[in-house]
Amino acid sequence: TEPMLRFVAFVGLVVLLSVLPQSSVDAAFAPLGGNLQTFKNVYTQWKASYVTATGAPVGSRVRRPSNQDDTVSEGIAYGMLAAVFADDKPTFDGLWAYARNFFNSAGCMGWHISSSGGIIDSNCATDAELDMAAALIWANKRWTGYTTYANNLINTIYTTEVEASTKILKPGNTFGGADQTNPSYFAPGYFKLFDAFQGTTRWAAVVTSSYNIIAAVDANYNAGTGLQPDWCNSTGAQAPFGNHHYSWDSVRHPWRLSHDYILYNSTKANQQCTKLNTYWSSLGVDNIGEANLNGGANWNTNQSAFYATAACCATLSTNTAYRTAHWNKISTTYPSNDYYKDSLHMLSLLVVTGSMNTDFGPASTPTPTPTPTPTSTPTPTLTPFAPTQTNNLGTTTKKTKTTTKKIKITTKKSKKNKKTTKGRERRILT
């Protein structure tokens, strides 16, 4: 009856409002342009350039042509993320097989492998594990069959790469925590995804510690620009090693922030992106690059790793000219022929085209079944890890280097095409 329908609708609205953030945000997510095919076109080029079976003991790997054609776990994870959204199961499975071949006793992939499959460093890099785990969750939703892999990897990350006493994300399984962390690894959207997938609440403390460190940097070091350093300690101050300015690691910060907004309508992610948008729009898209945290100096500008990831935050901006400039840049400048830049460019396109859609629908190769006799429409079943409401952008919705030498830990500049091994060369020596 009509009164009953009204009551059901009212209850639904109350439930929806109860799970949405209570404080306002500055803007709602809006794609900059393009569509899923835009991302897939670039993915096809990226795959042709960087994915190979040569030198892989099993499966396939992502190569870094300018680093002696080696492989890092980060690249495998980027490939897995891209493959699941491109609906490319063979490539996904090949990369995941390669990763598992180099798992160490802790249960995660050694981060640095030579072009011939030799282990250069068997320790783990947290950013790679996080991206792999998220990719496994989404692969399990798209194709099924990855539940155990996802659960095992999430458990490994939590027990070996989260500092037990502080719940601060460690950069690897053998070092870091309150004394040394990497804000570009902070992935609050993933942390929420892990809790939802496993039916736990333990990752909430990691979300809190991550945003607390970001807030400490904002309060004490960046004069409101929103820029985060490559490395810092739990107070946001200079860590024992690593750059304390916006550089080739922290360039991923806006990309990860956008995930938390797209998937979980995060007010904190939106507010952080708003700070960055305000700062970057004052510079102009062509001038986004490495920078002092307070914005007092910029260099290595007009590099795709910087402007492509910045475009992820631009999806939350209401500045039409700024949004258009970002879209004109990111949609016309691929490739750079650099593994790291091209990887972040590709993954940023997934965000800015509004294609980070985790409602994959039926598997891409469903088993044929007889035509059923028409019946009443069944009640939809919620997926186990969807926190609340599903839309075409993710889950909850508001509205709708290359190196030739080891990294110089205290340098003020990085050379133009230099994506270093993110401070991990230091790990070999300690």
Question: How is the topology of this model organized?
Answer:
Blueprint: H1 2-19, H2 36-50, E1 51-52, E2 61-62, E3 71-72, H3 73-85, H4 89-101, E4 112-113, E5 119-121, H5 126-142, H6 147-160, H7 188-198, H8 204-220, H9 253-264, H10 267-283, E6 290-291, E7 298-299, H11 304-314, H12 320-330, H13 339-352, H14 424-429
Antiparallel strand pairs: 1-2, 3-4, 4-5, 6-7
Helix pairs in contact: 2-13, 3-4, 3-5, 3-13, 5-6, 5-7, 7-8, 7-9, 9-10, 9-11, 11-12, 11-13
* Strand residue content: under 5%
Indicate the low-confidence ranges by residue numbers.
1-26, 363-430
- Going by helix content, strand content and strand pairing, the class is mainly alpha
Helical content band: 40-55%
What is the first-to-last residue Cα distance? 71 Å
Total beta strand runs: 7
- Work out the oligomeric state of the chains in this entry: single chain
Q: How would you state the average pLDDT, rounded?
A: 84
Strand order of the largest sheet: 3-4-5
Radius of gyration computed on alpha carbons: 21 Å
Spell out the helices and strands N to C. HHEEEHHEEHHHHHHEEHHHH
Number of helices: 14
Largest beta-sheet details: 3 strands, antiparallel
Shape: globular
